[in-house]
Amino acid sequence: MIPRFLLGVALCLLMLVSSFTTYAYLGGRQSKVAVPAQKPTTATPRPQAFRLPGTLYAVQSGAIYSLSVGRFHQLTPEDGWTQPSLYPDGSYLLAVLRSYNYSNVYILGRFGQVVRLVVNNAGPPRNLDTGVKDWSFYPRLSPDGTTLFMSYDQPKFGYDVPFSIWAMPVGGTIRQARLWTNANDYTGGDMQPIPLPTGGIMYTKYSYGPDGNLVGQLWFTARPTSRGIEGRALTFPGEDCLQPALSPDGSQVAMICTYEKQAAGLYIASWNGSTLGPRRAVITDQMVAQPTWAPDGSGIAYFAPSAGAQPFQLWFLPKNAYNPPAPSPTPVPTPTPGGPYNGTLPSPTPPPPVVAPVIRPIQVTTNAGFDATSPMAWAA
After folding, report:
1. In terms of pLDDT, which residue wins out, 99 or 350?
2. For the ranges 47-56, 264-273, 364-373, which has the lowest average pLDDT?
3. Of 303, 301, 379, which Cα lies nearest the Cα of 85?
4. CB neighbour list of residue 228: distance below 8 Å, 6 or more residues apart
5. Burial call 222-237: b when 16+ CB within 10 Å, e when fewer
6. Is the pLDDT of residue 305 over 80?
7. Plot region of 106 (φ>0 → left; ψ -120 to 50 → alpha; else → beta)
């Protein structure tokens, strides 16, 4: 009995030791998918890393950061700042400051200092009724810098609080604002207005498609809404396109389209001022968000995870990846001077096939975690 007892104890000890060793071995070789994101200032690219032109503004954890000459700088505290956009001349920023039950729009200096409160949605002091408080999101200025467009939660009725697009003088008050779009009920509404040089706007309208799913569509509106007429759709419901961005020369629009799948690819279409051309897939193997054109036309920046459920990183797609240069024309052979000539040219040797190089996106950050609901702003 004693030997059997000792053997049993020995086997238990062996199983315990081997199980712990195996767990430690496998644990040391697991992927670090859940590694927490670092501040962009901590995750500053190395000096030899790829550098974007100009100054890029992005948001992480309620703070606005700038990226210039390969270095991140924190411009605001982590107080709920989001959705920066630039003045047309690049002199100031517009940004949203979120509270727990309202949001305001501010003008900031290029280094994050508060210049002026533009839209105050806090309501009367010490009034805790959320019905008298409002939300403003995605502020953008018209090309002439005089009109502020934004998504604003008026009119609202009880629990139905969709966002519509409103416009107001940038030096005025919300009482001077005009309604530009009528949002669909219980959808979230109309988001991310893009003021156009023609005086109209492009934006994302959310609605329920024919299959009953909530989808996004790009819409164009040339003037404030009147008698329920507010413009027309630029994309189809089944494409589920959102987050439009106009190229610096105004000839192309970058957007995110999901085609109602668990994916969000980058697509580009031509734009003639009123109509989009066919959508062209550019990136379909990443979860892309917030495409933003470089001010010099050299490429497109966007957010996407490095893999799986990781935080969103900053990526850059060079221009030649979606606008490849035209191939050089094949030279026509000519007779050799002084050589034999029988009235016909020699048959040309076919040139080797031209294989365009595959240009992949450049990952600018590796361990940051940016807010994928906040567009970027990019100054020259």
Report:
1. 99
2. 47-56
3. 379
4. 182
5. eeebeeeebbeebbeb
6. yes
7. beta
Any idea which residue has 């210039």 for tokens? 68
The answer to whether 134 and 153 have CB atoms below 8 angstroms apart is yes
CA–CA separation, 325 and 355 (whole Å): 12
- pLDDT tier at 7 (50, 70, 90 boundaries)? very low
Interval 60-64 mean pLDDT: 97
Total length of the chain? 380
Distance CA 188, CA 217 (A): 13
The pair of three-digit structure tokens given for residue 51, joined into one six-digit string: 């550098």
State mean pLDDT over 82-86.
Answer: 98
Give the CA count within 13 Å in the CB-facing half-sphere of 33.
8
Residue 316 has pLDDT above 50, yes or no: yes
**Among candidates 82, 199, 208, 210, which has minimal Cα distance to 151?**
82
State how far the Cα of 217 lies from the Cα of 146, in Å rounded to an integer: 27
Residue 165 burial class via C-beta count within 10 angstroms: exposed 0-12, middle 13-18, buried 19 and up: buried
Residue 203, φ and ψ in degrees, nearest 5: -160, 175
Count Cβ atoms within 10 A of the Cβ of residue 164 and give its class: 0-12 exposed, 13-18 middle, 19 or more buried: buried
Candidates 256, 277, 259, 281; CA nearest to 204 is 256
